TrEMBL record:
Organism classification: Bacteria, Bacillati, Actinomycetota, Actinomycetes, Streptosporangiales
GO molecular function, one term: heme binding
Biological processes, Gene Ontology terms: cytochrome complex assembly
Membrane protein topology class: Multi-pass membrane protein
Residues passing through the membrane, by range: 12-30, 92-114, 126-143, 150-170, 182-211, 239-262, 277-296, 303-325
Cellular component GO terms held in the UniProt record: plasma membrane
Pfam family membership, one: Cytochrom_C_asm
Stated name of the protein: Cytochrome c-type biogenesis protein CcsB
Compartment(s): Membrane
């Protein structure tokens, strides 16, 4: 295929990806909205400590499967069909999510082949890659912790990111600046993308924690409401910490590799460039979050607020620095 054909295919796959993510988001939301209350399955979940992280997510999945496969006459009238609906929404959401992920991967691969370089040389490509990393991180969490409840929130974040990339940040396939023609882009930028995607999933879990904690402080989540179908606040808190713990070393490696690349490209490891400063500020806040949890026993609302401050710094490092300041690292 020619360069123009590959670029055109990348654009078409982008549209396919956005549509699949939006439909998957609706299916995840329906699964969350019509699901059984998590409290109903709390006891089975407590019997298996390794699965406490997701509350009753795993127990709910077992309950759903049991409802689908139950023999006639073994359940109360009308009990089988709601379980079947819940399971169908979940399967549809996951199927569309995986298909959308595959199309998203195709966007990056065809874009890279068309440009004959790593496909994150401008804001459009960088944001597209970060959205891909966030969806990938969610799928890993989905498999590892059965955290299906995050699906709707990650899907809407990915769809919005891709919408912003296409409407405001789109760039035609073309060469990059001389400084980016280096093998370090495959190491430094890739690490930053992976860490940002994982931090996004941790941020979604943190937001859900704060929303549910606030509702419980004001009198508790209404029985049968959406919040009652989320895992416990402790489970959400631990999920956020574990994903952050995974992402933090990768972000650290990205900063270190960026300094080495800067020395090769510009003759210095550190030059107080706005991107360097805010990357380090982000690192400090996430380090403070993990340190406070490990040494001072922070958890819950205090830790969640600090985590969101770190995520806000991360987002400002990506959007604010690129558009509000001029520097050697600007993608804008």
């Amino acid at each position: 295929m020619s360069t123009a054909d590959l670029a055109n295919l990348s654009d078409k796959l982008m549209l396919t990806t956005v549509v699949m993510y939006i439909v998957a988001m609706v299916a995840y939301a329906a699964d969350l909205g019509f699901g059984r209350r998590r409290a109903e399955a709390a006891a089975p979940a407590e019997a298996e400590p390794a699965k406490v992280l997701v509350g009753a997510a795993g127990a709910e999945a077992v309950a759903d499967d049991a409802a689908v496969t139950a023999e006639p006459g073994t359940a109360e009238p009308g009990a089988e069909e709601p379980g079947r609906v819940r399971a169908d929404w979940a399967r549809l959401a996951i199927l569309l999510n995986v298909l959308g992920w595959g199309a998203h991967l195709g966007v990056l691969v065809t874009r890279g082949l068309a440009a004959n370089r790593w496909p994150w040389g401008n804001m459009y490509e960088f944001l597209t890659a970060i959205a891909f990393a966030a969806v990938t991180a969610f799928l890993v969490v989905l498999v590892r912790y059965r955290a299906r409840f995050l699906g709707a929130f990650v899907m809407i974040a990915a769809a919005v990111a891709l919408g912003v990339a296409n409407i405001w940040l789109y760039d035609s396939v073309g060469p990059v600046t001389a400084a980016l023609n280096s093998y370090w882009i495959a190491l430094h930028v890739t690490a930053a993308i992976i860490a940002t995607g994982a931090f996004t999933v941790a941020g979604a879990a943190t937001l859900l924690y704060l929303v549910k904690d606030r509702a419980q402080t004001r009198g508790g989540a209404a029985a049968g409401g959406v919040l009652s179908r989320l895992p416990s606040t402790d489970a959400l808190d631990r999920l956020s910490m574990r994903v952050t713990t995974f992402a933090f070393p990768i972000w650290t490696a990205a900063i270190i590799m960026g300094a080495i690349w800067a020395d090769q490209a510009w003759g210095r490891y550190w030059g107080w460039d706005p991107k360097e400063i805010w990357s380090f500020i982000t690192w400090i806040i996430y380090a403070a979050y993990l340190h406070a949890r490990a040494t001072a026993g922070w958890k819950g609302r205090k830790a969640a607020i600090l985590s969101l401050v770190a995520f806000a710094a991360l987002m400002f490092n990506f959007f604010g620095v690129n558009y509000m300041f001029s520097g050697l690292h600007s993608y804008a």
